[in-house]
Amino acid sequence: MDQDIQARIRQLIDEEQTLREPIINDQEEAEERAGKLKQLEEQLDQCWDLLRQRRAKVRAHEDPSEAEERPVAEVEDYRQ
């Protein structure tokens, strides 16, 4: 499961890098990318949070499969 989460994180990071490539003279595409980038960053935050939960459960000798993806609103309020 951790490998699946890490693979998803790598996929999202690759997509993020593509979305951050410069756009010249196309405001509509820039706005579209900005929206996609925001969603992608939220998904990344959720993946990292889930991975941290799983690792914490392992350290606490608990079942990591009990970790659950939390809503974006909850994850976005955490301080990094």
UniProtKB/TrEMBL annotation:
InterPro entries: Uncharacterised_Rv0898c (IPR020311). Residues 59-80 have a biased composition (Basic and acidic residues). Residues 58-80 are annotated as: Disordered. It holds the Pfam family DUF2630. This is DUF2630 family protein. It comes from Arthrobacter hankyongi.
